[in-house]
């Protein structure tokens, strides 16, 4: 019995050894594949590092310029007067940036505090990473110049990946919600335009068809009816966009006037120029001041065709770029 058991034991060990051997070979093959992939990725990673090294001085220079500009603005109390200035910009120029203002309103409805929670998390991690990178650069300054890629690796050690991922995920969800809100809003404008075109299609068709039949060859008469229909809808959409622009300008004028009147009084109180607000928010004079300033702002925007004259269009070029990006995101996502 012992001999039989020993034979079975030896046979089982031999089979187990044979089964284990391919697994080792598979592990070797997997590690070899990983090594090949790493060798293929390495040149691209080196190029990324070179790009980072080339961009780093310009990024640092830009950040220093922004810091210097912010320090120069400190005597003018930008934190106190900033909201009032932003409100004044909305009053006179808000209707030009339809998509940007609509996105800001969507963020406000979703919850600006939620956005700031995620932004503050990213900012805290950025400060921690920047402090660690600065310390590392000071230590290596005597030894030699460190590459930007090495600086980024040091920053990655200092930041909390869970907080960064959580904040970026939260901001991405808010971005999707904003885009969905804007797409629904602009889709409603297009639907309204098509409805306006359909309402006037019949009357336009009665007068336009005989005129077109006289001036178009008979073989192209089959295109008259669909051409009139879709031309009417196109005109309706154009009118709907004009109405949307006018409504946006009115909204910006009212919102900006309210923000300017309230924030300017708050700034004067904080800086000690007045002891209490002159116009209370629930008073008739406050509402009258807001309506008067909003009317002046709307008429000013309408006089320029809801655009910006030169050289203000150059001054607001970054906002034009943001407007273009938001418009493209609404149409592509």
Contiguous low-pLDDT stretches (5 residues minimum) are 1-6, 19-28
Structural class of the helices, strands and pairings? mainly alpha
Helix content: over 70%
- Annotation, overall tally of beta strands: 0
How many strands, what sense, and barrel or not for the largest sheet? none
What's the structural domain tally? 2
Shape: flat
- How are helices and strands ordered from N to C? HHHHHHHHH
- Average pLDDT score: 76
Radius of gyration, Cα only, in angstroms?
A: 33 Å
Query: What fraction of the residues are assigned to beta strands by DSSP?
Result: under 5%
Query: How far apart lie the N and C ends?
Result: 75 Å
Q: Please, how many helices?
A: 9
């Amino acid at each position: 019995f012992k001999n039989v058991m020993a034979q079975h034991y030896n046979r089982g060990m031999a089979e187990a050894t044979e089964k284990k051997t391919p697994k080792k070979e598979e592990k070797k093959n997997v590690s070899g594949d990983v090594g090949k992939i790493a060798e293929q990725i390495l040149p691209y990673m080196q190029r990324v590092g070179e790009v980072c090294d080339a961009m780093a001085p310009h990024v640092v220079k830009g950040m220093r310029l922004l810091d210097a500009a912010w320090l120069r603005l400190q005597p003018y109390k930008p934190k106190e007067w900033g909201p009032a200035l932003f409100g004044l910009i909305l009053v006179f120029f808000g209707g030009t940036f339809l998509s940007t203002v609509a996105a800001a309103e969507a963020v406000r409805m979703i919850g600006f505090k939620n956005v700031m929670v995620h932004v503050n998390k990213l900012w805290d991690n950025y400060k921690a990473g920047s402090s660690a990178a600065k310390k590392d650069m000071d230590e290596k300054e005597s030894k030699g110049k460190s590459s930007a890629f090495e600086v980024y690796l040091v920053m990655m050690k200092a930041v909390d990946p869970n907080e960064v991922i959580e904040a970026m995920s939260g901001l991405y969800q808010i971005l999707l919600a904003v885009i969905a809100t804007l797409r629904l809003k602009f889709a409603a404008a297009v639907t309204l335009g098509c409805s306006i075109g359909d309402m006037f299609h019949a009357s336009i068709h009665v007068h336009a068809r005989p005129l077109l039949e006289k001036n178009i060859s008979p073989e192209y008469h089959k295109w008259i009816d669909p051409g009139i229909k879709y031309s009417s809808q196109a005109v309706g959409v154009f009118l709907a966009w004009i109405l949307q622009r006018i409504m946006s300008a009115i909204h910006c004028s009212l919102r900006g006037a309210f923000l300017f009147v309230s924030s300017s009084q708050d700034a004067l109180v904080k800086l000690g120029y007045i002891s209490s607000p002159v116009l209370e928010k629930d008073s008739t004079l406050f509402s009258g001041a807001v309506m008067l300033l909003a009317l002046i702002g709307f008429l000013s925007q309408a006089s320029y065709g809801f655009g910006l004259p030169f050289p203000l269009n150059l001054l607001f070029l970054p906002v034009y770029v943001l407007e273009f990006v938001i418009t493209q995101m609404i149409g592509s996502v």
